[in-house]
Amino acid sequence: MSEPSESTGATAVSGSNGASARGPLGETLLEMRDLQKHFPLTQGIVFKRTIGHVRAVDGVNMTLRRGETVGLVGESGCGKSTVSKLLVALEKPTGGTIRYKGTDVASMSGRALKQYRREVQIIFQDPYSSLNPRMTVGDIVAEGWSVHSDIAPRKDRLKRTQELLDRVGLNPDYVNRYPHQFSGGQRQRIGIARALALRPEVIVCDEPVSALDVSVQAQVVNLLEDLQDDFGLSYLFIAHDLSVVRHISDRVSVMYLGSIVEEGTDEQVYTTPSHPYTQALLSSVPLHEPHLRGQKDRILLQGDVPSPADPPSGCRFRTRCWKAQDICATEAPALVDRGQGHPAACHFAEARTVVPVEID
Amino acid sequence: MSQSQTDPTTRRATAGGQLLEVEDLHVEFRQRSGVVNAVNGISYSLAEGETLAILGESGSGKSVSAQAIMGILDVPPAVIQGAIRFEGRDLLAMSAEEQRQVRGPGISMIFQDALSSLNPVYSVGWQIGEMFRVHQGASRKEAKRKAVELMDRVRIPAAAKRVDDYPHQFSGGMRQRVMIAMTIALDPRILIADEPTTALDVTVQAQVMDLLKDLQRETGMGLILITHDLGVVNEVADNVAVMYAGRIVERGTVDDVFTDAGHPYTEGLMASVPQVEAKGGRLQPIVGQPPNLAAIPSGCPFHPRCAHRRLGADAAPGRECSIDVPPLRQVVPGREAACHYSEEVLGVRAV
Asked: Per the CB < 8 Å rule, is B228 touching A183?
């Protein structure tokens, strides 16, 4: 490539650090294969014994390529936040692998793990509890450099912090202020500056706009898109808001009870959803246009999501599915393309349009 | 959605049978650091069977105005002025005991967070039954029987078995149903729902909104829906009042307002929200932050963030956005907006 990435930093606010400086677009960065995370359920206070497992993540396959945004949608409790913790090595997987640039993350230690943690950063949902109230904004943004001191020489740190604040749309003079002096949207910008400080390749965005007001959400979404273009970032964008995910994502994976039930480009998943759960999910999203009201199929799901400590046999969704037959209880459907053009984990996958298509 | 909502006759408020009239309501909080003006002179009315959505962001005063109607604001720190007329009688002119007797069976409210609104140490059946024991003097047995009936009515499966369960044993959607059961126990004339589905997943949100609409159809109660979700407003409400900085900035039927906004703030909200039915281009956010209620901008409170504002020589006499407060006025039949230049905003986003 034209230029080694070391010469340009995340603080190169000019935006010269394009994707091409890091590596070819479309190169596979992160690969999850049959990823599992089971949390033990224990009983007893002194003598704890394990009485079962919560299968929070149970066989997730996903790929993230350079420069793209993959959306991960699902309802609360489906395991999407556990996936984000596994990715940034805050949790160790029970089974399966995460490969980063071809290397298994579980086998990394020492310098390699440190490098991995620098290159894969995270932005959390709650901008109120994810920033230390006793640290100034400058300290929060610069904290990573005390571990990765090679990125910013000590004497440049203040200047670089201010450049980062400027880049995310905050006044650089606010470097000595504390988090409580900022609004929710501004705090989320601080969280983004903190993630950018270490010049990451991948940012895991765990519900980054869910806690924000609607008019401020759009500001943060646009900022994330601009930063992606400038720095060649790849995002794993985790959210429950289907509209935001569609807007920002190149590809979308839908998660239900610990596993991926459908994946494809945003167009494939939203206009021809093939898994019954995706169809039900999309049909529940309220539309904003009066003239589209009443034009979509409503699929009302019965009951609640089963407990991940005791998931149904076979297909996870069969207890709430209107298509369920005997085979669904005995055989878990694989996530493969059954003729809809994109993979869906359903024995009876069938493309169906549930969201009316807007004709301009 | 169901047929009745697309039927134009039910989507319009009927002139007769006004249940609630709020007139020039002001709520301020006097604090040591100054006065916070949470609600600054809002007026609206609610008819029988009508669903009125109050749309706004956090800090717009939408919840505080509802809490003033419910009488759950602590006065002294809060100062409430204006009139709140329920079936013609001004609640603010009554004694506390009279207010309680009118509101108790007449107006009820559900909150966003059902888990923190329910008492964790009493069974849900006991909490629902409390309505009948306190207000109707029912016996424990009678109250429990009625609690089971209500749980059935809000479609909690196996109600008879679950009546003795505690709140933590229910899922989020089921807890919100328990809350709804409590609020409809005494057949209220008005139900105020403050962000009832914000904490719920989208599939459960659809179930709960359907339930509320069904109950409304059965009882003819008026529903005030407080939310920031444009989609929910579009799908369930008849009329909408958009609030900003403690004022109503636009009001009309949902069809009219959502098709062609008459206030720059409403227009900005529409443009800043991505839609599920199309990928769309770049989002158009509203610049800046919502205002601090202790220091609301002069003139039109939205003018620092407004794309249509006119200052100095550009402004018409008496209509300078940073000086003159725009009144809520009728801009086209059936629609009111608080903007000096609403006519220029209308038609910008014609569909």
From this structure: no
